[in-house]
Amino acid sequence: MIDAVGLHKVYRLKKRRVTALNGVDLRVEPGEIYGVVGQSGAGKSTLLRTVNLLERPDAGTVRVGGEELTSLRGAGLRTARRRIGMVHQHFALLASRTVAGNVAFPLEVAGVGRTERRARVGELLDLVGLADKARAHPSQLSGGQKQRVGIARALASRPDVLLSDEATSALDPATTDSILALLRRLRDELGLTILLITHEMDVIKRICDSAAIMEAGEFRESGRVLDLIGTPGSLLARSLFPLPDRGGPDTVVVTYPRSYDEPLMSELTRRFDVDVNILGGGVEQVAGQSVGRLIVDLRGARRGPALSYLAEHGLLVEEAGQ
Ligand code: ADP
Ligand code: MG
């Protein structure tokens, strides 16, 4: 749905040149939630603004839904942009307008008639759970409610793609959860494709199917989250699941990005005559799937072959001790 190739962007300030994008390729499949995570200044917002051509790249092409946006200008570009909604960190609502008035705004700009506009605003407020707040003003809303208005407004033109720039960064954890759940539901119900940027790993863990780690204008790593979790040496996996800080020389961390029916640990002690002592573990939901993690001390003469056996069964095995 989004296909960006070879994006470069340099900002020229008085004396300095800042390379915000340094050869970024991004491909987001239809109906996917794709997260770009990175520290402040990494180039995330520039990338997002380049995807809808609010920022024109110095080099590279952007296609959305098969249409090459980089070749469009003026009215053609404005029309194409209606297929792309955008949600902002600080909501960007008009204080003088009611909730309904804010959601209606893009419809007015697009020349949608009054009757149709009313009906559409009603639908949108229902969709985000704010039907009872239509006549309230933004100052009367909580942060989470403001972001729901922002999302409803972004969906007014029935876009296929939603771009989210740190939509939850100004919200508390519980509200963040409810907004992420809303985004996921919108993807499921409307078939939206969502590209979001965030500096919070937890957002990636909770709702993203695919993700990229961005640093200094480049993608350091990208791929499907569940694939990366099973990839030895993955940066994303390490950030989502840090190694325990206290590990002995025999400690290993076993991660399995799917459920297991086989009694692998008892199999291990039987076959390889090793002692397994469980130190910790848990199961977390990642990309809508259970990912289990077990921290164990594993001792015995045939420790090496035992670890290889786990790896051969598709489990990610990492030595945790120093
Ligand atoms: P992020 O969203 O990851 O924090 P940005 O895309 O906002 O990163 O910024 C990337 C780099 O580009 C930063 O060094 C930032 O200072 C610079 N930058 C962003 N926008 C502009 C601009 N309009 N003019 C000049 N420099 C900019
Ligand atoms: Mg930013």
UniProtKB/TrEMBL annotation:
Residues in ABC transporter domain copies: 5-241
Pfam family, one: ABC_tran
GO MF annotation terms: ATP binding; ATP hydrolysis activity
Domain of life: Bacteria
Record keywords, A-Z: Amino-acid transport, ATP-binding, Cell membrane, Membrane, Nucleotide-binding, Translocase, Transport
InterPro entries: AAA+_ATPase, ABC_transporter-like_ATP-bd, ABC_transporter-like_CS, ACT-like_dom_sf, MetN_ABC, MetN_ABC_transporter-like, NIL_domain, P-loop_NTPase
GO biological process, one term: amino acid transport
PANTHER family, sorted: AMINO ACID IMPORT ATP-BINDING PROTEIN (PTHR43166), METHIONINE IMPORT ATP-BINDING PROTEIN METN (PTHR43166:SF30)
Protein name: D-methionine transport system ATP-binding protein
